[in-house]
Design brief:
The structure holds 2 protein chains of 2 kinds.
Chain A lengths: L1 H11 L4 H4 L21 H19 L3 E4 L6 E2 L20 E5 L21 E3 L8 H6 L9 E3 L8 H4 L10 E3 L9 H11 L4 E3 L4 H5 L12 H17 L11
Parallel strand pairs in A: 3-4, 4-5, 5-6, 6-7
Antiparallel strand pairs in A: 1-2, 1-3
Helix pairs in contact in A: 1-8
Chain B lengths: L2 E3 L6 E4 L2 H7 L1 E2 L5 E4 L6 E8 L8 E8 L6 E6 L4 E5 L6 H8 L10 H23 L11 E4 L3 H13 L6 E5 L8 H4 L3 E2 L6 H15 L1 H5 L12 E2 L2 E5 L2 H16 L4 E4 L1 H7 L10 E5 L4 E2 L2 H15 L2 E4 L1 E12 L9 E12 L5 E5 L2 E4 L5 H8 L15 E12 L10 E3 L5 E5 L4 E5 L16 H15 L7 E13 L6 E4 L6 E5 L9 H14 L13 H5 L12
Parallel strand pairs in B: 9-10, 9-21, 10-17, 13-23, 21-28
Antiparallel strand pairs in B: 1-2, 2-8, 3-4, 4-5, 5-6, 6-7, 7-8, 11-16, 12-16, 13-15, 14-15, 18-19, 19-20, 22-25, 22-26, 23-24, 24-25, 27-28
Classes of the chains: A alpha/beta, B alpha+beta.
Chain lengths: 251, 566
């Protein structure tokens, strides 16, 4: 029963009751129904046009976007709200170039809101805990334009999902650092580079395998304070439904 | 310090301290957990307890009765301060009134509906868990509401969807003669998923099944167990056409598939050459490539996930072999009508032979025939197809046909972009893993009859499969055959498509079989469709009424049209 109640903590924490009160509370094993990260709002797109609709969607959920010819990132200042700098009516000249959805709750159904715009070049999905192989399969919709893809740290992706990325023919750079469920990362990295001629795969440590068998320093036992900090941040993130990232890289 | 406070609304609040709770919880002999409140002499009976070591996490308890028996509420204990909020309480008793004076502060209010739902679901979840723990292969029950013959992908899928609707509403037994599935077509088959069909209902079923596999954690997840995973490999199917007829078929099918939402792309020979340089494209006219929601998975993991979920929902699994049916003659038609009184046979019980050799009858209300390749034989036991004329003259046209699967290794073979390749002759080949292994097979061109054994014919590979492969993918000239196995198709020799629904004469004899090789991939959709048909009397999600048994009586086959033969 332990996991069930941990799930309750995530979903219906009494500490955050006012915030979650608007969400229909239903105890199912499915997290998706309670997660506003997924709801597809067609009116948003009608009002704003494709690019701005995606921008609003991403920014409101904690991500950041960048438009063509506009140098800075439009970031999320407060969860759930879009800053005033992003227009809330359709404007010409806002063409989406980059999406940084790292450390958000984005999942398969969220991609309903992300139309494949032809100018989208950069897609950062690192440290998204709900991104899995099916989402990578769905990324084939963006195969005509995406040149940079970052999947580091996604805990649910396996090598079977990475194998589907051969469809992304325009891909120039792929980051697959620190992926716990991928077996044989060097092998899949090499095979991807083979099938995608223009692509460089980052984040794969080809040398580790070579060093196996040689004397290695045993890993230092983690100090208790670090462990406690991690536990607290894990509890905190579960309580509030937000991710507390340990690193945040943007190019 | 425990205290209780009345409100004018229907909520009550109870405060317990952290230490009180943990110290006082203990099991009673009746299986409930009882918490003793330190300053009160009465007890809280707590059912479906959920307790976590107190480090600030949420504790949730369901409280069943408190001093006065009419009190029924759900208590939620939160945070480190030790507040309980109980909602939905009924009439008060005098003792409770006194408490209100000693009452303490309030916690957050919990709405009634939320609490009700939570209480019900908590109870349900605990029961489910209990069921898994006690579920062992059960004795053959004498009576059951539904009996599912065959515990493969179809049978368990139907059992899951039926029981999901009303877990406690009826009893369901699955009779499987081989729990190890050594000959089952679910486990011996390749379990590939594709949307590239020509019949619209089949495409819809594949799309639904893809969604099911994608959200399998939610559908088939069981509390406190690891979420199920079927090792889905996402690679599309590539259907090739080498003649004008095949090309037209591909164009037509592509239009149907796109209309229904499948993600399929037509590729010209130049595009094929650019994307798959290892493929011979000189004689090809067109290719159809699946972009998403296609691939293959591990059927064993799928079956185990289904079985555990079914057990948690209360499905009983019985090991036994069906050897016959008991039927009764029922009178129908009123005696006042002119003419003879009509008699009609109705199936009442199924005779199951247990391990000990004895046969036991099991009475049922509805029988679902999901026996796969042997469903024709099971239907014959019920009398379907055994008479010369009349409603029982048409048999269920499903029989086991043998198909081979060969595994080979090719060192320079295609890499990770290798799709599930289907040659215009019907030979298929796909990659297996990342180490240069491939799986292939083909349908026999010549004689193809019902089979009883699973011996592999290696000459079939040498003569019919390898030459085609080597021609289509020249690198495959240099390969080494590693292993092979044979499996049965539940082959529908009428039109190689699904048979679903009830038999027109035996209205309580349902069937779901006959997919002839593409059954496992669509089992979620088929299970749901049949469950809807049984409970709601009509198909709700995907309308499969075209696939009923009646088409055999009216001789209207629904044939799958593809540029290949499988």
């Amino acid at each position: 029963m332990y996991r069930f109640v941990r799930y309750l903590v995530q979903q219906n924490s009494v500490l955050n009751w006012p915030e979650t009160a608007s969400i229909e509370p239903r105890i199912t094993i499915c997290l998706m129904h309670n997660n506003t990260a997924t709801w597809w709002n067609p009116e948003r797109e009608q009002f704003l046009g494709c690019d701005l609709a995606i921008a609003h969607f991403i920014i409101a959920r904690g991500g950041a976007v960048r438009f063509c010819d506009i140098d800075h990132w439009f970031e999320c200042e407060e969860y759930g709200k879009v800053p005033n700098t992003v227009p809330n009516i359709y404007h010409d000249g806002y063409k989406l170039e980059a999406i940084d959805a790292s450390n958000t709750n984005i999942m398969y159904c969220s991609f309903d809101n992300i139309e494949p715009v032809p100018t989208l070049k950069y897609l950062n999905l690192s440290n998204c805990k709900y991104i899995d192989d099916w989402c990578l399969d769905r990324l084939s919709s963006y195969r005509q334009s995406v040149e940079f893809l970052d999947l580091s740290g996604c805990p649910r992706i396996t090598e079977r999902g990475l194998a589907t990325l051969h469809k992304m023919s325009k891909l120039k750079r792929l980051r697959i650092e620190n992926m716990p469920k991928v077996c044989d990362t060097p092998l899949i990295g090499l095979m991807l580079e083979e099938s995608l001629p223009g692509c460089i795969v980052d984040g794969v440590d080809y040398d580790t395998n070579l060093n196996e068998g040689v004397d290695q320093q045993p890993e230092a036992a983690e100090s208790f304070e670090n462990y406690e900090k991690k536990l607290l941040s894990a509890i905190q993130s579960e309580m509030t439904g937000r991710y507390f990232p340990t690193s945040n890289i943007r190019f | 310090m425990a205290s209780l406070r009345h409100l004018t609304s229907r909520t009550r609040y109870l405060k317990l301290s952290n230490l009180d709770l943990v110290r006082s919880l203990r099991n009673t002999s009746s299986g409930t957990i009882v918490a003793k409140l330190t300053n009160r002499s009465s007890y809280l009976n707590i059912t479906t307890p959920v307790v976590i070591p107190s480090n600030g996490c949420l504790h949730t308890l369901a409280v069943n009765s408190y001093s006065c028996p009419s009190y029924s509420s759900l208590c939620k204990y939160s945070g480190t301060q030790g507040w309980f909020s109980c909602a939905r309480s009924y009439s008060s008793s005098k003792s409770s009134c006194n408490d209100s004076e000693k009452a303490d502060q309030l916690t957050a209010e919990v709405t009634d509906t939320y609490v009700d739902e939570m209480k019900d679901e908590l109870r349900q979840m605990a029961e489910n868990q209990k069921r898994i723990k006690e579920q062992v292969e059960c004795e053959i029950p004498r009576e059951t509401d539904f009996v599912v013959i065959g515990g493969g992908s179809f049978g368990m899928s139907v059992a899951y969807w039926l029981k999901k609707r009303h877990p406690d509403g009826f009893s369901l037994t699955v009779v499987e003669r081989d729990p190890m599935h050594s000959q089952s077509c679910s486990t011996l088959g390749l379990a590939s998923l594709s949307q590239q069909f020509s019949v619209p209902e089949t495409i819809k079923m594949s799309l639904f099944s893809a969604e099911f596999y994608r959200s399998m954690r939610d559908h088939l997840g069981v509390l406190d167990l690891d979420p199920p995973d079927i090792n889905f490999n996402h690679q599309g199917y590539l259907l090739l056409a080498a003649d004008k007829k095949g090309e037209d078929i591909l164009h037509r099918n592509h239009k149907t598939q796109i209309d229904l939402g499948a993600k399929v792309e037509l590729m010209s020979p130049n595009m094929l050459k650019a994307k798959f340089p290892w493929l011979k494209t000189e004689d090809l006219l067109l290719g159809s490539y699946g972009l998403a929601n296609e691939g293959w998975f591990d059927p064993w993991l799928y079956l185990s996930a289904l079985k555990i979920k079914c057990m948690s929902l209360g499905v009983k699994f019985t090991k036994g072999e069906v050897i016959g049916f008991d039927s009764e003659d029922k009178v129908c038609g009123s005696s006042t009508t002119a003419g003879a009184i009509q008699r009609r046979k109705e199936l009442m019980a199924v005779k199951v032979k247990a391990d000990n050799g004895k046969t036991y009858p099991m009475k049922f209300a509805v029988c679902v025939n999901c026996a796969g390749p042997w469903s024709g034989a099971v239907a014959a036991m019920a009398g379907i197809g055994t008479e010369e004329t009349g409603p029982l003259s048409i048999p269920l046209p499903v029989e086991p046909r043998k198909r081979f699967v060969f595994v080979f290794h090719c060192p320079d073979g295609p890499g990770i972009n290798m799709p599930m390749l289907i040659d215009p002759t019907g030979t298929f080949v796909r990659r297996e893993g990342l180490g240069g292994h491939y799986i292939c097979g083909a349908s026999p061109k010549g004689e193809d009859k019902a089979a009883t054994d699973l011996d592999v014919d290696y000459e079939f590979f040498e003569k019919e499969v390898w030459p085609v492969l080597a021609d289509r993918v020249p690198v495959f000239n240099n390969l080494k055959l590693k292993s092979a196995w044979a499996g049965f198709y539940d082959y529908n020799y009428f039109d190689q498509n699904l048979v679903i629904g009830n038999h027109p004469y035996f209205r309580n004899f349902m069937m779901a079989t006959g997919c002839s090789g593409h059954g496992v991939q669509q089992s979620p959709a088929i299970g749901q469709a049949l469950a809807e048909y049984i409970i709601d009397n009509e198909y709700q999600t995907i309308d499969l009424s075209r696939f009923s048994f009646d088409r055999f009586l009216t001789d209207s086959p629904i044939c799958e049209e593809g540029p290949y033969i499988i």
